[in-house]
Amino acid sequence: PFSSSSRRKMNLKSERRGIHVDQSELLCKKGCGYYGNPAWQGFCSKCWREEYHKARQKQIQEDWELAERLQREEEEAYASSQSTQGAQSLTFSKFEEKKTNEKTRKVTTVKKFFTASSRAGAKKAEIQEAKAPSPSIHRQASIETDRVSKEFIEFIRTYQKPGQDIYKQCKLFLDTMSHKRELSIEEQSECAQDFYQNVADRLQTRWKVPPEKVEKAMDEVEKYIMTRQYKYVFCPETTDDEKKDLAVQKRIRALHWVTPQMLCVPVSEEIPEVSDMVVKAITDIIEMDSKRVPRDKLACITKCSKHIFNAIKITKNEPASADDFLPTLIYIVLKGNPPRLQSNIQYITRFCNPSRLMTGEDGYYFTNLCCAVAFIEKLDAQSLNLSQEDFDRFMTGQTSPKKQESDSFSPDVCLGVKQMCKSLDLLSQLNERQERIVSEAKKLEKDLIDWTDGITKEVEEIVEKYPLEIKPKSQALAAIDSENVENDKLPPPLQPQVYAG
């Protein structure tokens, strides 16, 4: 509360201005007995903090409820898209944009409640929170960012003066990048690559740090800056990375029928140990999307590749070769269908430490993954040693090479599965008969059309060679015994002669 001297000064100032001040008007609106501040809507500092805290807690609760509701809507939309062909599920970007708009509206309402005359610090915090995509994502990112920052500080302490220099350079780079959000992703990638090179050169030339310690330091630098920059540079809206991700996922779903035999994969999943290795490889390639640092994403690719080599080795009882590895990696990608595959590849290419991509096993395995994705995008009938007709039928879902023959089922398989396979065999035979009948009917129709055209052509040639001349009708001749004999110029008829005698 205000002291007695402060109240006297306020009264004197008011009396000089000719304004009568009632002591009750200076009290806090909440009735706590303290004097309120006009800048805080008539609340005292303590009551204002309580009101602000209550409003923020209410906002956080509403944001959690909003996030849960939007998550349910996304799951329902995804379920409906699976049952109905052509329906498109909500993408993550639309989901995030919807939550951001809703959160911005709520924060604006809270601002109006406290007015624009509140303290500048609280206002700045509200604006920053309004820009955050969602409370859960911001909270998770903050926890991970804090953990990485602490680990980075603990690491650079072991480098003493070079570590202090590294930390200053990293802080300067992050401040610079925060003012370069409007740049294209390629330009931001160039800035990051230049920063890696400058820091490495600085450690080697100025501080004379050994190469092995430089490499370790660069790994920590990459981890620190990319953890803080991840949400700004991974799959940004200014690129078509998300569109490519959806195209690749759609392509892989259409190729679900591809078998290991078609790709000449030297892996037998009937062996339990090999099957476990395949599952681990698929898990590692899917886990790549959950990592934030390019080096960690490369580590997932490396672990997946090593599981593939082990599976090939167990199957063939001999070390695997590069010719065996690439087809198997293609099969693993087709079977796992990793999320946001193109975005992860582009992110690694743009922001990974170039020394890792240019040398070592990480770079080799990453190159093979890029080749596998390129092969999947251009996969055709010739690549699988199939006819174009069979390839088109498999792609459209008319038939599948994975269908198991009913005679090969074990005795303990349920009757429903056997009956289903028999029905599928019958439908396949009927489909082949129908296609054959349609083909023969089209051929007969073509033969009839060709025969009609041939006859017509022959008739036209004969008519042209022997044209038909139609002569005018001639006048009819008169009969001999007709009455009109004047103009016939015939001699007179003979008259009978009578002789006497």
From TrEMBL:
Keywords: Acetylation, Cytoplasm, Endocytosis, Endosome, Metal-binding, Phosphoprotein, Protein transport, Transport, Ubl conjugation, Ubl conjugation pathway, Zinc, Zinc-finger. Pfam families: DUF5601, VPS9, zf-A20. This is Rab5 GDP/GTP exchange factor. GO terms for cellular component: cytosol; early endosome; endocytic vesicle; recycling endosome. InterPro entries: DUF5601 (IPR041545), VPS9 (IPR003123), Vps9-like (IPR045046), VPS9_dom_sf (IPR037191), Znf_A20 (IPR002653). It is found in: Cytoplasm; Early endosome; Recycling endosome. GO terms for molecular function: DNA binding; guanyl-nucleotide exchange factor activity; small GTPase binding; zinc ion binding. Residues 22-56 form the A20-type domain. Residues 75-94, 124-143, 482-501 are annotated as: Disordered. It comes from Oxylabes madagascariensis. The lineage of its organism: Eukaryota, Metazoa, Chordata, Craniata, Vertebrata. The keyword Cytoplasm applies. Residues 79-90 have a biased composition (Polar residues). GO terms for biological process: endocytosis; protein transport. Residues 242-385 form the VPS9 domain. SMART domains: VPS9, ZnF_A20. The keyword Zinc-finger applies.
